[in-house]
Amino acid sequence: MEEGKGPVKHVLLAKFKDDVTEEKIDELIKGYANLVNLIEPMKAFQWGKDVSIENLHQGFTHIFESSFESKEAVAEYVHHPIHVEFANMFLGSLDKVLVIDYKPTSV
């Protein structure tokens, strides 16, 4: 199959540390969502909590998805000073993290 053309999705799965309060998690989510207003290559942002009944989450509780126009735009975002500063703070609150970038592909 051919790789999808067009936008790139940047997906982050997270499990927050047990001692991170709900208030802190809310603050971090608002900060993450605000990056779309501060970093031009980031075109959209969505997030949610695991609601699956399959119990296959491997401890991950939250998902964050950002949209970009290209792989190059993701690279620009990853190295942007505002993202680097936020990521250092955000990652310090996580027990587990998994990041995947993909191009949506239809069969």
TrEMBL record:
Pfam family, one: Dabb
InterPro entries: Dabb, Dimeric_a/b-barrel, HS1/DABB1-like
Domain of life: Eukaryota
Domain Stress-response A/B barrel: 8-102
Oligomer and partners: Homodimer.
Protein name: Stress-response A/B barrel domain-containing protein
Organism whose genome encodes this protein: Eruca vesicaria subsp. sativa
The organism's taxonomic lineage, starting at the top: Eukaryota, Viridiplantae, Streptophyta, Embryophyta, Tracheophyta
